[in-house]
Amino acid sequence: DGGITQSPKYLFRKEGQNVTLSCEQNLNHDAMYWYRQDPGQGLRLIYYSQIVNDFQKGDIAEGYSVSREKKESFPLTVTSAQKNPTAFYLCASSPATGTLEAFFGQGTRLTVV
Amino acid sequence: AQKVTQAQTEISVVEKEDVTLDCVYETRDTTYYLFWYKQPPSGELVFLIRRNSFDEQNEISGRYSWNFQKSTSSFNFTITASQVVDSAVYFCALSEPNYGQNFVFGPGTRLSVLP
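YS: structure for the whole thing
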């Protein structure tokens, strides 16, 4: 089935550790996105990529890093520099036009203790 | 600047009632797209509808209908005869293709449909 796969669904990490969230899509979409969602709040854009080997910072990129070495994959690393990393992270993809809807993965809930 | 406002944080209705979720947007372009997504408790966002700025025709899909009014910069969503399964968080979103491919989301409205 075509879609977006995020893994793992739940992730626990100790404070000060880097952690990488996986996002894979088989929709042949050029654009991919990472959003952060805090309880009771909307989605805030962390990073997005319109093409392989290129990505742009979103509104809250500090403390995060990404790579886009393959069209299908857009992993997000939450670094120890991120002050408050506990949140729900959503990955999405869309065709490279900006006119069509984005498709979302099921999300990763990260808890830092 | 682009911005999406959903003034209703939470709404509770009793099953079979009609409910309207409001969405007001700000855009810097004449070409833009509006979207509605549903986020059930499982967390994944489910796409509901897309509307471009040149098409103000209202749309109906089963119990769902959307009212797009450029004059008031609004794109409201109505659920007729609500059901418990409609309980979710609903997000309105905006994209401006001439300014890149990212999407701007509103804060969401949590709808609770009580049996």
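YS: worth flagging: The longest strand of chain B covers residues 88-95.
IM: good catch. Also The mean pLDDT of chain B is 93.
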